[in-house]
Specification:
about 325 residues; mainly alpha; two-stranded antiparallel ribbon
Length: about 325
């Protein structure tokens, strides 16, 4: 097919699509450009260049430039094609999309380092596994809002390697690891099991300490497991109490007892069922799917309810 024929075919396809959408009342050839413009600017401020955005969205760089700055002597357009807006707004960048030297938000990196502290890993031991220039930067990660994408990816690789391993198992002196772990707990830092790998880099994401955070059951799990109550769970429990304010004192105590009992048994049962499935050959993903929980939640319960070794009779 020649270039002219391809262009003609594409034009025919677009015309048919437009007529079909118009027939259903769904045709929106032009939409407000401001949401897409603000999104491009936010990605650009976050370290993703226009060229990188163009490569990921399929929108040419001149189009993105026109969206931001207009075309001399014309100002930026107030409306753009719906397809263009959809392509821009549907793009969600990942850590791998940024150039090595781009300065990106440090939230995910800081969370990973603090999570590793829960396992007893110290900054020097983590730094030994990073590029030679990283150890000093790693000490400053919590103080700086931005760092390079290359460092963030290096920390992510180390986190993937160490997030399921206690520091003592890799040769870290036990008392050093214990001191680091206690410090992490005192600071209220979330452990690896509280974070989902898909959302740990999202500044708006919250750690799920219990598998039920954001609910009243989560609040009870915090209390039963002696974990500092997170804000979403405290808000959920306050709302639970408010919704039952009309009950008599006796009825309210009964409801509290039922809520506590429901939270106290679930975690141990999940851990026990998972271990039995894994003894039969299931991996984490399969066990979590069979039980009906996420892998992240399953790992939390396994850590929270260690297997008790029975002495031989």
């Amino acid at each position: 097919m020649t270039r002219t024929e391809a262009q003609r075919a594409a034009k025919t396809h677009n015309q048919r699509r437009r007529r079909r959408l118009m027939a259903y009342g769904q045709w929106q050839p032009m939409v407000d450009a401001q949401p897409a413009r603000q999104y491009v600017l936010r990605l650009q401020a976050g370290g993703l260049s226009l060229a990188s955005q163009a490569a990921k969205t399929g929108i040419p760089v001149p189009t993105l430039c026109g969206l931001l700055y207009g075309k001399n002597p014309y100002p930026p357009s107030k409306r753009i094609r719906s397809e263009t807006a959809a392509a821009i707004l549907s793009f969600t960048p990942t850590l791998d999309d940024y150039p090595a030297g781009a300065r990106i938000d440090a939230t995910g990196t800081v969370r990973r380092l603090r999570a590793l502290a829960h396992l007893g890993w110290t900054s020097p031991t983590i730094g030994d596994r990073l590029p030679c220039s990283a150890p000093r930067t790693i000490e400053q990660a919590g103080r700086s809002p931005k760092l390079t994408a290359q460092l963030a990816r290096s920390v992510r690789a180390v986190y993937t390697e160490l997030s399921n391993v206690a520091a003592e198992e890799m040769g870290v002196t036990p008392w050093i690891a214990r001191r680091r772990r206690n410090y992490a707990i005192a600071q209220g830092w979330a452990p690896p099991a509280a974070w989902d790998d898909d959302t740990i880099d999202d500044p708006n994401a919250q750690p799920d300490w219990t598998g039920f955070c954001g609910t009243d059951r989560g609040w009870w799990t915090h209390r039963l497991e002696h974990i500092t109550v997170c804000e979403p769970c405290q808000a959920a429990h306050d709302q639970w109490l408010q919704d039952r304010k009309h009950l008599s004192q006796g009825e309210r105590y009964q409801a509290l007892g039922r809520a506590r009992a429901e939270a106290s048994n679930r975690g141990a049962a999940i851990a026990e069922d998972a271990r039995e499935l894994m003894r039969l050959g299931a991996d984490y993903e399969t066990a979590a799917q069979r039980i009906g929980v996420t892998r992240n939640h399953l790992q939390q319960e396994l850590l929270r309810h260690p297997e008790l070794r029975k002495e031989a009779a």
